[in-house]
């Protein structure tokens, strides 16, 4: 293309009636030095209905895509929910029984009983045992949620602003870009849930450990993605860490979860988890460099120019 322009400009130089822009066209190719190989960003991933987002009428937790998420959902669905159901039904039946069995018409002379050692021991010990049974998996889950990231984790800095998110990839040399909510017509056009879909997503690799460093720039926000079991406060002047590995590629939506001002409800989060190779392609499309094992595999990759993905 550069040669075409030069060839076209050459005869024009002798021609007095040459269009005014000809000299500019002739010099432009010279100004652009060696051709730069451009890596295209992978196409914007389509979300799957009901995955990584709430479902209408849903009463339980969203389907989980991290190991901590699976433990948490198991604790909620298989332990807490059955226990509170049994206890609530038991107390309700006990109250109904007492109301019917000891009603005034059936008991004109009320009992004067005020003490029963056996019952008192039972109603103290049984709740203690129930709490102990809950505590064991619960403490394990708590520890899991704050486990430090493995050494090879990809670090991404997340900053909460009034009222949008900023994402920076220090490991890949990608400077911060911001993520704003999509207007309703644009979200619908993309086939994405309005109020959950932002323009720029937080792109992460699936199957590789990730470490988010979360902070706030103005007030306290909270970075929360329910289907990845992620919720961490973004506090000005403090760096909070959250580490996880996303099991499957996909789009996972979340929202700011700390009341942060007028547009708190309009600063959604979308994590696009790409297969590792596609993530590396995305990094290069943004002008970033690969890190660790990913860099060795594609060491001969051509340099690229930055291209923002919308
Ligand atoms: Cu908020």
Question: How would you describe this structure to a colleague?
Answer:
It is a single chain. The protein is of the alpha+beta class and 310 residues long. Among the domains are: 67-104 and 118-145, no CATH class; 154-290, Immunoglobulin-like (Sandwich), CATH 2.60.40.420. The chain is 35% helix and 20% strand. The chain contains seven helices and ten strands. The strands form two sheets. A five-stranded mixed sheet has the order 3-2-1-5-8, with no helix packed on it. It has a five-stranded mixed sheet with strand order 4-10-9-6-7. Helix 1 packs antiparallel against helix 2 (22-31) and helix 3 packs antiparallel against helix 4. The radius of gyration is 30 Å and the shape is elongated. The relative contact order is 0.15. Mean pLDDT is 85; it is low at 1-35 and 299-310. The protein binds copper (II) ion. Residues 221, 256, 258, 260, 264, 267 line the site of copper (II) ion. Copper (II) ion (CU) binds next to loops.
Could you outline the blueprint of secondary structure elements for this entry?
Layout (H helix, E strand, L loop, with lengths): L1 H13 L7 H10 L35 H35 L15 H29 L8 E8 L2 E6 L4 E6 L4 H7 L11 E4 L3 E8 L4 E5 L4 E5 L5 E6 L4 E7 L11 E7 L1 H10 L7 H5 L13
Parallel strand pairs: 1-5, 4-10
Antiparallel strand pairs: 1-2, 2-3, 5-8, 6-7, 6-9, 9-10
Bound molecules: copper (II) ion.
Copper (II) ion binds next to loops.
Q: Tell me the span between the first and last alpha carbons.
A: 28 Å
Class derived from helix and strand content: alpha+beta
Q: Regarding CATH, which class of the domain at 154-290?
A: Mainly Beta
Tell me the strand percentage band.
15-25%
Radius of gyration: 30 Å
The CATH topology assignment of the domain at 154-290 is Immunoglobulin-like
CATH architecture of the domain at 154-290: Sandwich
What count of helical segments does DSSP give?
A: 7
Bound molecules: copper (II) ion
Sheet with the most strands: spatial strand order: 3-2-1-5-8
Overall spatial form: elongated
């Amino acid at each position: 293309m550069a040669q075409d322009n030069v060839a076209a400009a050459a005869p024009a130089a002798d021609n007095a009636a040459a269009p005014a822009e000809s000299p500019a066209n002739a010099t432009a190719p010279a100004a652009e030095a060696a051709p730069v190989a451009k890596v295209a960003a992978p196409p914007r991933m389509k979300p799957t209905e009901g995955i990584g987002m709430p479902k209408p009428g849903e009463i339980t937790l969203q389907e989980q895509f991290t190991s901590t998420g699976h433990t948490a959902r198991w604790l909620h669905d298989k332990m807490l929910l059955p226990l509170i159901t049994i206890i609530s039904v038991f107390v309700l039946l006990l109250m109904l029984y007492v109301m019917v069995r000891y009603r005034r018409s059936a008991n004109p002379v009320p009992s004067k009983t005020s003490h029963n050692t056996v019952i008192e021991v039972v109603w103290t010990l049984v709740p203690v045992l129930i709490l102990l049974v809950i505590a064991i998996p619960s403490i394990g889950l708590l520890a899991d949620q704050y486990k430090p990231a493995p050494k090879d984790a990809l670090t991404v800095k997340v900053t909460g602003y009034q009222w949008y998110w900023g994402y920076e990839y220090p490991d890949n040399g990608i400077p911060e870009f911001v993520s704003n909510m999509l207007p309703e017509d644009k979200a619908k056009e993309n086939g994405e849930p309005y109020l959950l879909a932002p323009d720029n997503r937080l792109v992460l690799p699936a199957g590789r450990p990730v470490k988010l460093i979360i902070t706030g720039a103005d007030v306290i926000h909270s970075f929360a993605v329910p289907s990845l079991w992620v919720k961490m406060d973004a506090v000005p002047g403090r760096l909070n860490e959250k580490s996880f590995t996303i099991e499957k590629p996909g789009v996972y939506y979340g929202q700011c979860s700390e009341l942060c001002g007028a547009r708190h409800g309009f600063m959604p989060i979308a994590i696009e988890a790409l297969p590792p190779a596609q993530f590396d392609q995305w990094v290069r499309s943004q002008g970033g460099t690969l890190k660790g094992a990913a860099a060795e595999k594609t060491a001969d990759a051509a340099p690229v120019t930055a291209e923002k993905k919308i």
